[in-house]
Amino acid sequence: MPWKTMDVEEQKVRFVVAATRQEKSFSALCQEFGISRPTGCLWRKRYQEAGLAGIAEHSRRPRQSPTRTTAELERCVVQMRQRYPDWGARKLQLLLAREKVELTRSTIHRVLLRHDLVRDHDRHSQATSRFERGALNELWQMDFKSPKGWNAAVGPLSVLDDHSRYLLVLQAVWSAHGELVREQLETAFARCGVPQAMLMDHGIPWWSARAPTGVTRLTVWLMKQGIQLHWSGFRHPQKQVKVERFHGALERALQARGAPRKEPQPWLDAYRWEHNHVRPHEALSMQTPASVWRKSERSYDPHPARWQYPTGAHVLKVGSQGNLDAYGARWKIAKALRGEWVQLEQVEQRVLVYYCRTLVRELDLKSRCSTAVERWLPNPDAE
């Protein structure tokens, strides 16, 4: 039987037996078994020293592997992953480098795989294109996290700077009541300044389905600060991508780490600090939001003066019932704006109604209908 069809152990035994008996010349024997002379000498030597145990199949793994990550470096990777169980290799690489542990992203991922700390299909390619505002505090995104996992009617309130991803608010409000949201925003405005604009969805408390313009007392208060408001997800192509992506990361962190149900705010505070000061972001060239973000130069005024519209603008006061008498008709605007002054800008047979810097209504002079606007656009004449 040719040796290549034999069990390897059986081949070795037959060879060393034949070599020991000197049945043939050593060279001829090696040729017959299809092995080199040095290999034959090694097998015979091992057999002479330890018998069959000496010629048993040995591990071919090298005793030393200069390219294998050392146990100490692997321990650093594992400890960092255990500290941030929802982070991938790309972000862990940056944190390890800060502690003078220089490893490639692929090496870190292999270590995580070896220790069952990540699944191979969890590896994602880096995003190639992103959309963001060009300046800090140009736009803040605001939304509630879903209530899943929080044992409450609504999840935490989040406010995020679009340009830097800096997390300004992460608060367990547990209610969509406008006054509670306003308290959090007042604290953020006092600490961080006021943004130029804010983006929200069509949800309570920053939108009212019963109001013709959708405005609420909360949004009127925001507009008085000169904040231009945008709404997404309803008659508008914009989406709250940044805050939605953050909520996805928060959800993964909640699942991986767990949070106390009774007193979650300390956990949220720690996570907000980690997000801003520790977690590197790919969109920021792996910098942290805190290293990029700066306080807004627009200061918060708790008692803002009446908004000044451009000189020569057509300005009217909203009536006590939220109506507006203009162009020979009475138009429904919003009860939340009663007693407030609005600017009217006629464009052929339509009139755009602005409150402060935000477009709130469109009047159709031909059909005599007051409709919600299709797009929320800035007032080009406002400062």
Layout of secondary structure:
Elements: H1 8-21, H2 26-33, H3 37-50, H4 71-83, H5 89-98, H6 105-114, E1 140-144, E2 157-161, E3 167-171, H7 178-192, E4 197-200, H8 217-224, E5 228-231, H9 241-257, H10 265-277, H11 289-292, E6 314-317, E7 323-326, E8 329-332, E9 341-347, E10 350-355, E11 358-364, E12 369-371
Parallel strand pairs: 1-4, 4-5
Antiparallel strand pairs: 1-2, 2-3, 6-9, 7-8, 9-10, 10-11, 11-12
Strand order, biggest sheet?
Answer: 3-2-1-4-5
Rg of Cα set: 35 Å
Structural class: alpha+beta
> How many β-strand stretches?
12
Q: Which CATH class of the largest domain is shown?
A: Alpha Beta
What is the H/E order? Answer: HHHHHHEEEHEHEHHHEEEEEEE
Your description of this structure?
- Strand 11 (358-364) and strand 12 form a beta hairpin.
- The protein is of the alpha+beta class.
- The protein has helices spanning 8-21, 26-33, 37-50, 71-83, 89-98, 105-114, 178-192, 217-224, 241-257, 265-277, 289-292; strands spanning 140-144, 157-161, 167-171, 197-200, 228-231, 314-317, 323-326, 329-332, 341-347, 350-355, 358-364, 369-371.
- The strands form 3 sheets. It has a 5-stranded mixed β-sheet with strand order 3-2-1-4-5, sandwiched between helices.
- The radius of gyration is 35 Å and the shape is rod-shaped.
Question: What's this, in brief?
Answer:
The protein has 383 residues and is of the alpha+beta class. The protein has helices at 8-21, 26-33, 37-50, 71-83, 89-98, 105-114, 178-192, 217-224, 241-257, 265-277, 289-292; strands at residues 140-144, 157-161, 167-171, 197-200, 228-231, 314-317, 323-326, 329-332, 341-347, 350-355, 358-364, 369-371. The protein has eleven helices and twelve strands.
